[in-house]
TrEMBL record, chains A, B, C, D:
Residue span, Arginine dihydrolase ArgZ/ArgE-like C-terminal second subdomain domain: 193-404
Top-rank taxon, per record: Archaea
Family statement drawn from the similarity comment of this UniProt entry: Belongs to the AgrE/ArgZ ornithine cyclodeaminase family.
Protein name, per record: Ornithine cyclodeaminase
Length: 424, 424, 424, 424
């Protein structure tokens, strides 16, 4: 890596998370670091100091890394004065203007570090060489206050940011915030990454576990999940009596009795089909028997039977019926779920809090998890409890599963085409 | 309509909403009614009585209608005894078993109406002709309690449901619930219906107004919205400074400066591009000028300029900048929005509470509205305030808009193909 | 009732819910009605007509009722012309100005009904006697557009509102909205009403069922619930293994082992106390035995044992342990809950979706229910499924239960004081 | 600090956040540390090593600290073998049993470190000295699987936890989770801490800024906020036209016109009082004039005028009216808010997303903030953007403000009593 610079960081940089963010930024952006000196404060009041050389393959990447380090309080080893450019017009900033953080900031002017006044996020940084008392002053201005000729700071050299440090001692009610990165990412590209991960796990002979709530069926996503099962992308399914009943109901009434699936969803129709579905499965002796007898001919449960998916239906006090396949004892069900969880390499948690928590309780922290729910609180709760590598998406399950299936299965087609090409 | 039956309904059937639900059910299911007698209780304690003949084109539809009326307390004019069938096995109910509501219920046995004990929803209704005191008894049983030989009620004749009536006088803290139909419908089919409505409005020369929040752009749905604008499906756009800036930022940095749009979304990059975008538009003199100068070459705002869409960008105290096109005075902005709202035949409210409320405040109750947001509270709040015909969807805007655009625009293709066929 | 007026209402007034709202308004506001004529449209296209005399004890109440009826489209039998008053200043409306709805509206001027233009909610209604074409015109103006001298409509006479009617036939994706009254009421007064209801139920010898989730304990509301149990306000408790374990853990570690309850809540401490609590209760042979042995000396479970409260702890696949008292089989637990539910006269559902749904499934629609949760979706889901008389509150359970207990128990004190006074 | 132990930690302990959590735990729990050796991995693949001596005033605190360090992978410098105790009964664990994390774990038995199988959270750790192949084995067991005589690990010595480390390079869709501590703390004690903070700020001559939404008034919390203003605990108020109008409406209709405040809240009454309130304030010439004329005699705005609170009412496109005091231009309003924000030492954000974001945009990261909203997403969004010391509470504003006022003002009473005592 031919492009490199040396930066310095000091303060309570370990316990305030500064070093973690700095090292993380270098690695996330594809650079590397070489720590030249690291003096760790030996007790809670002592500050630490780090000097490291940061490298990247190209100057653009290096600049992106340095930007991140700068935001976290790093300064270049040999700071120069700030670079000032006059604003070309009212409300117009020069290219490469410096955009402020909301942290206390200093600017190096004429060899001296001076404090920036009225600190505020996303502003321009103006230096007035000849302030009211004849001394240079620095302050922020929002874009619409910038006037032609204002001396606007550009780049990041000569500017030092001081992110807040963790208060010494216990903080009382006030938590120490580290500005966690929130996840406003394009939904579709995230689903694409999950699809790629699923394919990788299967190609490596791994095990995929799906935990699914009844909303998967209500929202019309059942067919897409059945497709994934049929294509071999699901090794185990953990769900409840409700999920299975709704899925079977679609199969029974969608094809056997000639009813319109759309009408069947109509809530005015009440729960009669639901109860009757359970009654029919009891009469047949269970789901597998019902598949063999040709009573059930499509859907997620059908594909699970056909493809020997390890399926656990756990009972709950909300259940109608239940189906004969449902494990009504909570301890017995938990043990079955535990076995599934310990075998899994990746777990998809689809629109069910109850079952996802039950599975999450048994998972080692090394298993990858994907949590999808329309309710942000559910996603947060699931991400909080455990996996070290997790994706959370707040979205409609009725669009997530079909999109995921599309991306996973078009990968199969691409692979088939590629293989055909190689064989040709 | 050759299939018909006569039913009777009595009680506080107007102020408890019973008649509204009964008339609604007949119409929703495609039947018709002919009121033969209607005695309205002349004061608040007097009950009302309705006898009407209900007709449908086929027996299936008629039965579906009668089922709904039954759930609301209607009985056939000439009730017969309840039809009882012995349960064929433990936990198995006969076909056409009667599934209970949670309302007080009577059953007609041997010419007498007897009360059903232990009323509970979704149960079987059992009649024991020879109860403990030698009298017939009726009670509910959940499916897993049904025993072989139990006499299970089937169909709905001989069964009378008594839905709760509105308490006389003010109800205190306790609201009177009418069992509103909740909306567990397959998402995709609802989007398809909205797409059809959009196409109809445009074909009839109508006006489509879009109200959009910045999440439309963050979630990657900007391209799909731009496609709808380009295809002529948007007559006016009501948004804020943030929406326009994010959209313009994608155009400026996605193509002009050769940056990867994906990277640009990365929150670590901070707000510098955002501020710089505003600065560049100010320098150009506004969005239209920036389009004409070739600075902005794609996106929603670009298509709005190119297609003469009536656009209002309303300012807010959260804004950065703002853009020169943003109307910063709230009263002035409100007046502009008011003009858009009064011209609209259908309004799409996409992931913005602030702007949607502002638009909703000005809308006549006759304008159709579609509200989409990931937050159920936002959707509820918007539906509550006004339109008589509204669709609410709790879903991810990043999948809603692309799916809507696909359905609307594939309609265009279908039409083109059909036209080509006709011309051929 | 000495004050009365006669109004007329016409249109699809039954199936659009108009009559229901009108009758409801009269009763809610304490008036009475006497229907003089009611012609019911005999089929779905025919309109209905109602003429009724509305009475109230005083003119203020009558006016409030007439206002509500007016909003729903009623007009006085003998309409007069609209009363117009000139605006005294720019942006200032006369007292008693008419504030518009968002429904199509007509105004009677010079004996003729004319349409109001630019209909919008919460505006002033202006009549220009001499419009552009020499004819009188009527239109809305927002407050800040009112000019001195504008002729502003006052009162409601001479104004006719036409609320939207339910579309004939099925409405497609677009639901028919009736402008449901949303519940922005002062929280504290609602809690006070619930407290009064609880006291009434108990005074009448009724049965109070409490369904409680673990958040009741986490949020610090356990003591208040224990107080209610001790004072005899709880007849049955339906909860889960988690609720009981958290409650017992507070008792075990708060008093037996001398630990600070506050520290115990600290999440860093992990789940060890939790597991150990279960282990200790197993060792004792169950909760009742642990109370008798003096291991458990306070809390909700302690008071339930001491006061013979019928308690059901239902198991779930999320449970740790479980406690020996927990019913792990879902069907068995459901049957036990069913018995509790059928005995209850009022049910408090406190911060638990799972258990509340299970209880709600078994409840007759005549049982009063109170649902409290921080999540609006939970409250909505519970209110949707069944009770005819229900209160829903979206609030923090940690403040709801203590406030409720305070109001209920201060009622006891008031009663004791009153009784002491009588005896003196 | 007389009690101390030496621990070792190794791995990617800086960039995985391990050291940050370890230093933090020591300080949070009131201990101190002395780093004896710290070798920092000089590049991204090199591991780091830390040896430090941890001290505390008493053994209990030291053990609590060591527990936290252990959970994060620290081991005592001179590890001994694990301490094993036989389970006294089925499902009963020995006191001080070791409760597992979900991270990969090793146990030291007979001088050797062996891997623990079937890792899962909150389990007992069992060592079988004589496994299937004659070698010792270690594995987890859930409580209900523990059998009498099982050798159960106790304490933490001889057990090594290996928390997951941050993956090298960019993690793709999968974020690296650090198991953030979620905040299930008793609500009331948090409010008490905020009250104490408010009192401290005022005693130190600091500045308190309140940002308030209309829900403060709707929920009945207006009186409590007015009390805080009257007692001098509010220096500046940032709100909108809606907040002020609702507050003034209560004053105007609650006292001037003799109406019942409760009735006034009744949503059926519509918006007429709302509009009329605005009209009356316009007629008076503004809020201050209305207070002086005796038109407004109570409420938050009244107290703000009487106590010279710096008040900014920012306009929005949703506003009715607006009031003459409302700053309708967004840029002008932003500038006024900016001045308030820069003067504040602590900011209370009460049930308003729009105004809170506007204020948050201008705040330096060193200002303390308290965010209260019923919507968790709002609280999360506000905490994410900036302050280094922040409290977030998801709760009902209608109970938060009165409880806060009670705690703050009872402090005044306590102080008065104390002072009276001193003077006596």
């Amino acid at each position: 890596m031919s492009h490199s610079r040396t930066v310095e960081i000091e303060g309570h940089i370990i316990d305030s998370g500064t070093m973690q963010r700095c090292f993380g930024a270098v690695m996330d952006l594809g650079g590397s670091f070489d720590v030249e000196q690291f003096d760790v404060g030996t007790h809670e009041e002592a500050e630490s100091y780090c000097r490291m050389r940061v490298s990247a393959d190209d100057e653009g990447t290096l600049q992106a890394i340095l930007h991140e380090l700068h935001q976290n309080g790093a300064v270049l080893e040999d700071p120069s004065d700030v670079a000032l450019v006059a604003a070309p017009d009212d409300k117009v900033v020069p290219p490469d203007f410096y955009s402020t953080t909301n942290h206390p900031t200093e600017v190096r002017y004429d060899g001296e570090w001076i404090d920036v006044e009225r600190i505020e996020m996303d502003c321009a940084l103006i230096v007035d060489p000849d302030g009211p008392d004849g001394e240079p002053r620095a302050y922020t201005k929002v874009l619409n206050a910038v006037e032609e000729g204002d001396l606007v700071a550009t780049d990041e050299s000569g500017i030092r940011v001081n992110p807040p440090e963790r208060p010494r001692g216990s903080g009382g009610a006030f938590g120490f915030m580290q500005g966690g990165v929130s996840s406003e990412r394009p939904s579709e590209s995230t689903i694409r990454e999950v699809a790629a991960e699923l394919r990788e796990v299967k190609e490596a002979g791994g095990n995929v576990m799906v935990v699914a709530g009844p909303a998967v069926i209500h929202s019309g996503a059942g067919d897409a999940l059945a497709d994934l099962v049929e294509a071999g992308y699901v090794d185990s399914l953990s769900a409840g009596n409700g999920f299975a009943t709704h899925d079977l109901e679609r199969s029974l009434y969608g094809t056997s009795l000639g009813m319109d699936v759309e009408t069947l969803e109509h809530p005015r129709k009440g729960h009669k089909h639901h109860i009757w579905t359970i009654s029919e499965i009891i009469r047949a002796g269970g789901i597998e028997a019902a598949v063999e007898e040709g009573i059930v001919t499509e859907g997620v449960m059908y594909q699970c039977v056909r493809n020997d998916v390890d399926t656990v239906l756990a009972g709950s006090i909300r259940d109608d019926g239940p189906l004969p396949d449902t494990v009504t004892d909570a301890v017995e069900a938990q043990d079955a779920i535990r076995d599934q969880a310990h075998d899994a390499d990746i777990v998809l948690m689809l629109a069910t809090l109850l079952h996802s928590v039950a599975v999450g309780n048994c998972l080692p922290s090394t298993t990858k998890t994907v949590c999808v729910d329309i309710n942000p609180a559910t996603v947060t709760q699931l991400l909080d409890r455990g996996s070290a590598q997790a994706v959370g998406m707040v979205t409609d399950i009725g669009t997530f599963v079909p999109t995921l299936a599309e991306f996973v299965l078009e990968g199969d087609e691409d692979a088939a085409i590629a293989e055909a090409g190689e064989n040709a």
